[in-house]
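Homework-ish question, so no full write-ups if that breaks the rules, but can someone show me the predicted structure for this set?
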Amino acid sequence: MAGTIAGQDRRKAFMLLSPAYLWLTVAVFLPLSAMAYFSFLSDVPFGGKDWHFTIANYRAFFETGTYATLMWKSLKLGLIVTAVSVVVGFPCAYVLAKVVKGRAREALFLLVILPFWSNSLVRIFSWAIVLRGNGVLDRAVNAVLPWDVKLNLMFSPTAIVIGLVHSYLPYVILTSYLALQAIDDSLIEAARSLGAKRRTILWRLILPLAAPGIIAGAVLIFVPVVGSFMEPRLLGGRLGTYYGTVIEDQFVAVFNWPLGAALSFILLAVVLAILAAASPMLKRAAT
Amino acid sequence: MKRLLLTTALALTAGGAFAEEIRVLNWQGYGTDLDWAVAAFTEKTGNTVVHEYFTSEQEMLTKLRTNPGAYDVVLINSAYTAQAKDEGLIDAIDTSKITNFADLDPALTGNEDLNPGGQLSGVPWTWGLTSIAVNTADFAEMPTSLSVLWDPAWKGRVSIRDDGLEAVQFAAMATGQNINKITDMAAVEAKLKELLPQITTFWSSENDWNQFMSAGDFAVATYWSGSAARSLSKGLPIAFVVPEEGAIGWLDGLSIPTSSTHKDAAAAFINWMVDPEFYVKWDAEGAPVSSNTKALAALPETSFNRQLVADPATVARVQFMRPVSDADRETYLKLWQDLKAAQ
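A: Not a homework solution, just the prediction itself:
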């Protein structure tokens, strides 16, 4: 008797999960396996070209220092953007969750989410207008300060970081907000009534309890930033060559899909390795 | 009654078959997609035109390979025509369907790169130069040498296109080499290494270029002659310069993909594109040099293109680009990528 109930449950679970599995198969598994297949070919298998299986695309990564240099450059960019986003985003999430209430919170939320509603390319171009020499920022600063300042942030790594932080900040705010909201206010009151200072409350109570949210936000930012290509290309000028732009070049400019696919999988492996290496630390923080 | 309806329906579908929709694959803003030109074509033939764009020759080839049947006319640079023909992507041209063909410059219709295997596979449409253009607000006197790109006075206000092949060709000219037979790659590499710190950003489209130039980000940048004519007609304060080291010449043809399902309409469109009536009007807005000798003769004396081809000494300095082997292309790309990554 118990067996049939379990069977029914399983059937129900299967029915409920099937749309998700179908989606995963079609949208994630199939394209990824196609790319994995491409990455082992010597040339694209259409347009009547000759091709065979090879690991040369993966070997290419190790044959020159170029790709490793760029990988390191992209990882550093990912770390910087993540760190800046957390430093800017966490206080904002704290204010949203614990300080403001009611209408003001809704309005602030809207402002946080607003960047998500505009096209990312439009966002980048508006940053270009702001950051360029004699642009909006330059003029604003010169209007306020009495002495002459030359402010041209365009086509520099700073511009790339600003553009990326703006694009990805909502992730860390939203995840931190959810974690902060889950903290019972009476816990903070209890700590305060026991004589804990503000700083102690932040370090010993709020940060540890909000850590899962911060970490989730950080991972959500770090992974796409390491592979980003549009922001570096448009805001970075001649310094805007990163690992992501090289992958994009392989697909768009030089039609070397196999190399592009292999470089993407190496990036995936490196990112997974980093997350795996960091996971004991992340787990400790999350519990 | 029913029969009447049926006949009407049949007549309508038959009528629809005459008014075809052709799909053109080209760079954005490059002649074929001018509103008035498309409207005039639709008025003349009843066919409508839809455009799709590419941002590099490789993307164009990719689109042809991966979307068979999607395009009826494609712009192919003569350096790529043979490759497209060899891959079976484009057909030989039936010149009898192009009534303006007799007026085209025989030197261009006979161009060996447009005639892979002796078959004309791209109708020569326009040609032009890739050279340098300067902001006249910055230059009181026009530079005469390519070395202006390396001049420390313009550091941070120089731009070239983000294209390994073109970068290598410019460096080759600056080191006194033939762009189609580069022998001293070490000199090219050293020259490019010196060039990169000069550069503010790379440009990738005419639109880009115009914006950067009008914002003052560029003082001197590589540019296409056709685009320069267009920017000038829009009132940008620039001058197009053919330096003493030379300039890169290119020839663009219009081809019909093998998989096209509207070949007659496509040929009619190409015929319109080489028509003097179209070209004279296009030239007024800024265009590259036409392949049609009658069209060139019909230009006003002050036209940019008329002046460009008028000086035989300028034309003699042009190095026309030939097809580049995959191996060379890969070498150039790798060199370019390594140099950019080292920034």
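Now go work out the reasoning yourself. Hint: Chain A has a mean pLDDT of 87.
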